[in-house]
Design goal:
37% helix; five-stranded antiparallel β-sheet; alpha+beta; 26% strand; single chain
Length: 246
């Protein structure tokens, strides 16, 4: 009778151990997921001009780790990209996006779809935790790890269609503000983006006002490309000279 009860006790002990390990693993994943908070990235397209703007705050729990991170970048001359989430994961995805753009030059839609497919199916990429916002002069996409490639619905205004998309912790605030300002005839894409991000920074504790802005003007001549517009100067720490002992 003692021999018969030993397998049952072993099974109960193993099940209890597995359940405890599963709970601990879930708690660790939850803590790691909320430990690093995202950012706010906003894209506004109006009257042939596309603006991609993001804040510079990096937060770890209740502490601000860095106030002037650059989360909006230009890929080549015609593509803008912003990210929210893990920085290392986002840079890995941006590298993959550049490879897709080299493979399909001038086809941003196909490049984004191929990246989403690889992100969804690849065993390594599916573990990456980030969200990308990619745009050019014609289209804007949000790419997620679930295989989604989302495009915003244009807002009809008297001055033409306006497209707005936001991601990150304060993306909802910035998106709502930009949509409310979309029909203002006295505000262009850049003015809308800056005002919407200012409102988001006032409401979201993980968003600051150190904005970094990139823009593409489809109406500008090709030979007169505007340089990157950075709304707030980013301070760079002086490099220390280290004497090497021979």
């Amino acid at each position: 009778q003692k021999t018969k009860s030993e397998p049952k006790m072993l099974f109960l002990t193993t099940a209890r151990h597995l359940r405890k390990s599963s709970v601990m693993h879930t708690q660790i994943r939850a803590l790691s997921a909320v430990e690093w908070h995202g950012t706010t990235i906003l894209c506004v397209r109006k009257a042939g001009k596309v603006v991609l703007i993001g804040d510079g705050q990096v937060s770890q729990g209740s502490m601000v780790v860095k106030p002037n991170a650059k989360k909006v970048r230009r890929i080549g001359k015609d593509v803008l990209a912003g990210f929210a989430g893990s920085t290392a994961d986002a840079f890995t995805l941006l590298e993959r996006l550049e490879e897709r753009l080299d493979e399909y030059p001038g086809q941003l839609t196909r490049a984004c779809v191929e990246l989403a497919k690889a992100w969804r199916t690849d065993k390594y990429l599916r573990r990456l935790e980030a969200v990308l916002l990619v745009c050019d002069a014609n289209v804007c996409f949000e790419i997620t790890g679930n295989g989604d490639v989302l495009e915003p619905k244009p807002i009809e205004t008297p001055d033409g269609d306006v497209s707005v998309m936001g991601v990150g912790s304060g993306g909802s605030y910035a998106l709502a503000s930009a949509r409310a300002l979309a029909d203002r005839p006295d505000m262009n894409a850049e003015a809308i983006a800056r005002k919407a991000m200012t409102i988001a920074a006032e409401m979201c504790v993980y968003t600051n006002t150190n904005f970094v802005l990139e823009s593409i003007d489809a109406n500008a001549p090709a030979e007169e490309e505007q340089e990157t517009d950075i709304s707030t100067e980013i301070a760079t720490e002086p490099k220390e000279t280290v004497a090497l002992e021979k």
